[in-house]
Amino acid sequence: MAHRYTYNYNTRRTGKRRLRWVFEVLALLLGLLLILCAYAGKFDPQSFFPAPFLTLAYMPMLVFVALVMVVALLCRRWLAAGIILLAFVATLPVFSLYVPLNNEEDLPPMPAEKRHLLRVMTYNVLSFNYNEPLASNQPLTTMSLILEANPDVVVLQEGGAAGIEWIDIPSLAPYVGQIKARYPYLYSSPEGLNIMSKYPFTTQALSEPRHTRSILGYNREMKSYLARAYDLQLPSGKQVRLIDFRLQSYHLSFGKNQNVRVSPDLKPAPLERMRRSFALRSNDAATIRQAIDNSPQNLIVCGDMNDVPTSHVYRVIRGEDMTDSWAEVGYGYAYTFNRHHLPFRIDHILYRGALQAVQAQRLKGGSSDHYPLLVTFDIDVKTPHAENIDDENQ
């Protein structure tokens, strides 16, 4: 009996050591994978195809690894918990872009004079649901959300619909009078990059014109531009340029819409559609970056990037001179895409120059597959805003 007891005791002890070793190896592998997901945006997806998938996986991986750490603590696997904690610390700069925890007391003060404020909204309005038969003839909550928020300037993506100007979309008829009264300066472009402004502006297309693209290639005869610039004439006399853009979507539901003009190619598989989308966005990000480099110092870049913070596209467009307004003055995890169970922040407002973001809001509502971002800027800043670039962007 003594021999059997000793044998069982030693066996259990050896089993516990093995279990502890497995737990520590698992923690190390998960920690390394979390770090890879956080910084995969440093790789161009055209040279390292898994990179964009890894950046999309960062937040789900963070949640999973956090759960593993809780289990490690409950099981008193201190080394495993310490390994995961080190991985968390290594990715803190990335976490702060996704989930900023800005203390309201530490935010820049709101200017007392209204003329020193500029409230800018970016919103992909999904053509005001013109292409969705069940919603196309209904008065939409998208425009009522815009009017209720009452920003000074609204830059729209996917504003047009099948050749019809957005202001003429039937569902907007109940709002046209209110729109024109509140926003006397309007502009529609063939690419659906539109603006509603309380202030006058001049506009110019950025980049060379091209046929509208999809993941299947050039599939429409209409020529358009990747981005558009608006030079605002503000009451304070300050000059500020806005750049509006929309990059290639993932086309997760491509071809389901009866109004989408597709080429005769066979529809690629989902993985191939995403690969093509990543490649197109990577090329277009360089074009947007060139437009930023050729723009005045006081600049606000708004748009549907169709990619997350720390992605390769985000890094290229942000560069080392632009500030992410949500990361700087927002709070918490704010997703802007609300379909396909993919709660990612893929819409962004970046800025530089003698401006200061003082408030950032993600509004919920509307009938689009996106939620809008609304940022309030102090335009009475005398010196150019200089951001301390986080380690992950260097």
Alpha-beta classification = alpha+beta
Overall average residue pLDDT: 85
- CATH C-level class of the largest domain is Alpha Beta
Any low-confidence stretches, pLDDT <50, length ≥5? Answer: 255-265, 387-394
- The CATH fourth-level homologous superfamily of the largest domain: Endonuclease/exonuclease/phosphatase
Number of domains: 2
Q: What kind of sheet is the major sheet?
A: 6 strands, mixed
Strand order of the largest sheet: 3-4-2-1-14-13
* Coarse shape: globular
Distance between the termini: 66 Å
| SSE order, one letter for each helix or strand | HHHHHEHEHEEEEEEEHEHEHEEE
What's the number of helices? 10
Task: Work out the strand percent.
Answer: 15-25%
The number of distinct β-strands equals 14
> What is the CATH fold-level name of the largest domain?
Deoxyribonuclease I, Chain A
CATH architecture of the largest domain, by name, is 4-Layer Sandwich
